[in-house]
Structure formats: structure tokens, C-alpha cells
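Notes from hallway chat w/ T.B., transcribed later so I don't forget. T.B. wanted the structure written out for a chain they're using in a teaching module, and asked if we could keep both sequence and C-alpha cells in one place. Agreed to drop them here.
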Amino acid sequence: MIEPETTSCPCCAGQLHRIGEDVSETLDRVPAVLRVLRTIRPKYACRACEEAIVQAKAPARLIEGGMVSTALVSHIAVAKYGWHSTLYRQMQILSGQGVLVNRQTLARWMKRLAWWVKGLYELQLRVMHANPRLFCDETPIRVLDPGRGRSKICQFWAHAVDDRPWNGPAPPAVAYVFAPSRGKKEIANQLTDFSGILQVDAYAAYKAIEKDSRISGKIELAFCLAHARRKFVAVFKTTQSPFAKEVIEQIAVIYGIEAKIRGMEAERRRAFRQLESRPMMEALKARLLAVKDGLSRQSPLTTAIDYTLNHWTGLTLFLEDGRLEPDTNIVERSIRPVALGRKNALFCGDEGGGETWAILASLLNTAKLNGLDPETWLTDVLERIVSGATKNDQLHELLAWNWKAAREAETNKAAA
């Protein structure tokens, strides 16, 4: 409230009276406050017998014997695995606020945090694999290898589900799995409990798992139209091929139809695709076959055409099922946070650090996908797990989408 210097009339010196006000608002920020929480547990003894001593149990802590609260550990985890700020940078920020903590201590906190929520992470992965449609992709991560005096290349495999494009039942979720390689054996081991349509790029490991005895007959592959398009974009950029441009424009029309039907129910999406997209895809295939006959085997355009035709069944599977997407963009968007974190952190200190990264990034990015503030969600989840308020058989209540639904129900009940 800003009052004038004087409320006396400049003309007659009489007292002015208030006739209104002007109000303006600006977005402001209150700087973070680091504080010490002191827990006092009085002891009581009997003066008569002088034997019995009564004292409340010490509350469980995230870091036993450590001098750090759940809220601070959550903040550090979200800053690193949710918003891509390295532990080194956070160490400097804390130092600027008068708190000296070395990077190794912060790393130990993250490892302990991942230990507490690993059960929730594994539950989320199982729930995602129970869905009959799954996206999958992978991205490399460097891990220090002290024995060889250099780093080695490991992998984050990203599993994703998201039924929002057709208003289906599965909430958006992503789970990263850390693995030492990107071989067929790794992804086959991860998908032994999955049965349904797996939407992926055309990496050989995905195509090889169809022959795995544990998976054979359980998984059908759907491929990515955006990857096929990229082949022709690369050709057009280098050769200015008119046919490559034609293919790109044809695929653009398909995506125009997809934009029109996004958010519709699955059956309506399928009907639109059968009516509008199928004839266009059939015409595209005919053109690809016709043009290929007149090309040299060494032509880059031939390579792009062969890629598309060789994966045609998987590329057009979305025409038959309104629940499917034409591409893997959902999982590619979900893998970007890992790529941003990798750009800032450069490498993991060891394989244990890679597993910690996978666990925490999975949970935090799923919270973000569900429209939650990841720090608020993680702090509450940790308080419930560490205190024992939520038991192991109740962990499903803490999954981001269930937690959000419970909070919304509480808010609606309070408002009513």
C-alpha cells in the first residue's frame, strides 16, 4: 500500500477523502531459505521408582545419522535429475548461501534417495509394461572406467506410454533403464514381462527380439514414420531430389490428418485414417516402387526407398489401430531430459550412478508429464515412505498419476 505524502488539499488545505484506488500486480520471488530444524525429545523418569524412563521415538530419517532433511535432498535431486543442474553447480550455490557440502556428499545423498524409491520405480515400470502398447528408444551415456583410465559407453533405454492423443486410460509415463550396452540381449531382458505392440525405430536389436524364445509371438513391432521421413529429408538436403521432396510433402499431408484427429476416440481416429490416410499411403508405396526401378543401387535415394519399403508393415500399422501413433515422437520427447542432463554432466561416476540417474529421472520426469511440481511430489512421497505411513503394498498410491488424483479429490472435497 503506497499512500501519498500528504492527504491535505493543495488548494484549501482541507482533509482529502478516498474516492478509489489503482491496483497493479507483479510476479515476485522470495529467495530460498536454508534453515536448521531442531528436533527436541524430552525424557521423563519416575521419582518414586527411579527406573522407568519414557521418551518419544526419534523420527525416521532419509539419511540416517545425516544432518539433512527430506525436503533439501528432494530439492537437490529435482534440480539435478529434473532440471539438469549438476551437483558441482549446486555445491557452488549452497556455498554462496553459507553451506559447505562437497560433491561426494551430495552424490551419496542421491544414491540413498534412489535406494528409498527404487521399489516405486520398479512398480511404475511393471504398470507400464502391463499396458498393451509401449514406446521404446535408447541413448548413450558415458561412464567412468577407472581400470582403463577412460570412460566407457553405456545406455539409457527409455520406455514410455501415453494414451492422451486418443483419450485412453494409460497416463503419461517414462521409465529409463540403465544398461551396460545397447545389444539385443539387454532389451530382451527388459521386455520379458511385456506383451503387445512395441513402437520403435528400426534399430536391429528391436527387430531381433521378435526371434527371442522368451518374447516370440508376444510382441508386434510398429515403426516410426518420422524416421522414414528423415531419410528423404537427408537426401533432399544433399541432392535436391524432386522425388524426395514429393515424398516429404506426401508425409506432411498424413501429419496434417493426424493433427486434425488428435484427441478423438480410437475408433474415430481409425475411421478417418482408413478414409483419408490409407489411400495416400497406398499411393506413396506405388510411387516408391515405380521410382526405385529406375535408380542405381548406389543412389542415396534408393537407400531411403528401401528403408521405407522394408519396414512398410510396421510403418502403416497405425492405419489399423486408432490407439497407435504414426511415429515414436512420444518417447523421443521423453528422452530429451536425459540428453540435456548428459550434456551438462558429461558422464556418470560409475554404473551405480547410472542406475541412480535412471531411477530418479524416471520418477521425476513422469511427475512432470502428469502436470505435477516434481519437488512437491517427491518430498511428500519420501516423507510417506521414510516414515512408514505408506507401506510397500500401498506404493501404487504414490505413483504420480494416482497421487495427483488423490490430491484433486481432496481439493474438490474441501471446496464442496
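Follow-up for T.B.: The chain has a mean pLDDT of 92. Might be a good example for the class.
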